[in-house]
Structures are given as C-alpha cells and as structure tokens.
Specification:
Layout: E1 31-35, E2 38-41, H1 42-57, H2 62-68, H3 72-92, H4 99-113, H5 116-127, H6 134-151, H7 157-173, E3 177-178, E4 185-186, E5 191-192
C-alpha cells in the first residue's frame, strides 16, 4: 500500500450479531469486554487509564489534559477492542508486523515530530497516549497499512468501502460484548457507540502519528 490510504466508515444501523450475556452480569464478573471469547479485564483497562493519568500529571498542562480526556476509560476500551479487531483482520490476511517495520515506523514518527520527547508530548496531548503505549500506536499503524496493501485498497470510495466491510465482518465474527457501563460496540462503525467524540475508527491512515486513530 502507498503511505497514505483514506479510510472512512459511514453511519449505519448496528449489525445484528449475536451477543453474549452482558459483561456486567455474573457471566463475566470483572470484565470490561469480551472479544472473541477473550476477556479484557476492568483491571487491565484501569491500568492503561492510570498510565495516562500519571503521564498527564507530569505535564505543566495537567489540569487541561485531564479535563480534555474526562471519558478516558471509554476511550481506552475503544482502543483495546479495536486493536483486537485489527489483530483478527491481520491474522485472516496473513499479515504481521516485523521488528524492523516497527522500528522503521517509530523512527519515522520521531523524525516527523522533531524528537522522541516531542512525539510523546504530542501523543499524550492529542490522543491520551502514555509514553509506554506508543509502541501500540506504531504497531497499529504498521498493521493497518499492511492490511490495506494486502487487500489492494485504493484511496477511493470503493477502496474505503472494501476495507470497512472487511473490518466490520471481523468485528461481527468476534462477537464483541461490552460491559454496559462503557456503552455498546457498533460492528458497522467498528467502535463503541458512546465513543468520546463519535469519530469512526477507520479513517485516514498515514505514517504521521498525529493522524492515527484518536484515543489510541
């Protein structure tokens, strides 16, 4: 795939995928979500939230950053679920991210941002990403670009729809069940329907970290 691929998702009705018993019930105690039969524990989600809050508190703009990410648990859960959908699509299409590709992409991010510290600051301020979560942003970028390349996706409405269909199908296949306290997963748009700003996940992909999915 070229370095830039535009991916958008149109609004639609929730897909009628069968749901497991709600995570908030006795069937999945302590789970924030169940994806493909695997739990995302509330404790794991909270650990990611705590990492971001700790990083924000170390910033001179701490109060503003915390206020801007008031719905951080949902944002982080959105990311954690989406990454599992990406993994499913990558596996289905024989795609992986090599160590060399990850290093190349991170180096490009650092160069574009003007240094490691500036990259970390930008991701924390713009996307609520803690320094130790940057590697996940890099990996997601590599995988999504390679998926689009494998599928022959072009920067066109047809290409966008093709990629959307693939991710939506993978989302349905994973039978994603979210604890009601965090919202409900939308297979069609591949995101929580209570996402903090309503932005779809499948959007423009570039090697610029500022263009990565929000809340990553």
């Amino acid at each position: 795939m070229h370095r830039r691929t535009a991916l958008t998702v149109s609004a639609a009705l929730l897909a009628a995928a069968p749901l497991l018993t709600a995570c908030g019930s006795d069937a999945h105690p302590g789970a924030a979500a169940v994806v493909g039969g695997e739990r995302i524990d509330v404790s794991s989600l909270q650990a990611q939230v705590d990492d971001v809050r700790a990083a924000q508190q170390g910033s001179p703009q701490a109060a503003q950053l915390v206020q801007a990410t008031g719905d951080l648990p949902r944002r982080k859960l959105n990311v954690m679920i989406f990454d599992r959908v990406v993994d499913r699509v990558a596996r289905d299409n024989g795609v992986d991210a090599t160590r060399a590709e990850l290093q190349e992409t991170r180096t490009a991010f650092v160069r574009q941002s003007g240094g490691e510290d500036r990259l970390a600051t930008a991701l924390l301020q713009e996307q609520g990403v803690a320094p130790d979560q940057i590697e996940a942003v890099v990996r997601r970028n590599v995988l999504m670009n390679k998926i689009a390349a494998k599928l022959g996706v072009t920067d066109s409405p047809e290409g966008q729809q093709k990629l959307t269909d693939v991710f939506s199908a993978a989302s349905k296949a994973l039978a994603i069940d979210v604890n009601p306290r965090y919202g409900r997963w939308d297979d069609t748009q591949v995101r929580l329907d209570t996402a903090y700003d309503g932005s779809p996940w499948l959007r423009q992909i570039t090697r610029d970290p500022a263009a990565a999915p929000a809340g990553a």
